[in-house]
Specification:
- It is a single chain.
- By secondary structure, the chain is α/β, with parallel strands linked by helices.
- The chain is globular.
- The two termini are about 35 Å apart.
């Protein structure tokens, strides 16, 4: 049957005291609709990094509160305001400037996290990304592309959190996703990304899949919902994007 991978993607938000080694990335997108999630994840995370203009968004949301000081601000630094950069630098944030224009600031942050792990021998259990999509379509697609590349080359789970959505990618295999924290919204979806999904089956959804073939240009599973179970199971032959609404 194969081993089942268990996912509890909202556990860190529900319980900030959870015993997990978490890294948190703040992207350059409004945090006004995710302030509660920001506060919960900030308490949980041991490593905080702003992607360039993400420092502006953090400052706009948290002001001069010193407890919200990231360990790093990273990127090509063409978006972060000089006064914001100076503010966090004075509080102890390290500045990591990358001149590489062939990668996004999000990718630069992930490289920095990987470098931190190698230098410190610290291994993160999960990476959360706030302000992850919404707004410009090209930027949203670039973020999803980074998510896809990361999942195919790195075992550390990467969860994207937007205003009312949580998104991550399930690798090929059997999965059990807990959806009983009380923070789940009403919709979910399974979207093929980067490749077709040749065979996928589920339980726990209002409209379950049974050995379906999903691909762009044919069928995808969007606007689905939960059937009231504590968890959803997914058995997939290929990488598949899981997305669900959150409260």
């Amino acid at each position: 049957m194969g081993e089942v991978t268990v996912w509890s993607p909202l556990a860190c938000i529900k319980n900030p005291q959870i015993e997990l080694n978490v890294a948190l990335v703040i992207l350059n997108s409004s945090l006004s609709e995710t302030q509660d999630k920001l506060k919960s994840l900030w308490k949980t995370a041991r490593f905080h990094i702003c992607a360039d203009g993400g420092a502006n968004k953090l400052y706009q949301t948290c002001g001069s509160d010193k407890s919200f000081t990231p360990e790093y601000i990273a990127g090509d630094l063409d978006s972060v305001y000089k006064d914001v950069l100076l503010h966090y630098e004075k509080l102890g944030s390290k500045i990591a400037k990358f001149n590489d224009q062939n990668s996004t600031d999000f990718e630069k942050c992930l490289k920095l996290i990987s470098k931190h792990e190698k230098l410190t021998a610290e291994q993160f259990d999960v990476i959360y990304v706030l302000g992850s999509h919404g707004g410009r379509l090209d930027q949203s697609l670039a973020i999803l592309n980074t998510l896809y590349k990361h999942t195919k080359t790195n075992e550390t789970p990467l969860f994207l959190i937007a205003q009312d959505t949580l998104t991550f990618i399930l690798p090929p295999g059997r999965h059990k996703i807990y959806v009983n924290t009380g923070l789940e919204g009403s919709f979910c979806g399974l979207i093929p990304l980067g490749e077709s999904c040749r065979c996928i089956s589920t339980t726990g959804l209002a409209y379950n899949l049974s050995k379906h073939h999903l691909m762009f240009g044919s069928q995808i599973s969007s606007n689905n919902s939960f059937d009231g179970s504590d968890f959803v199971t997914v058995d997939t032959s290929d990488y598949i994007l899981w997305t669900m609404s959150t409260l």
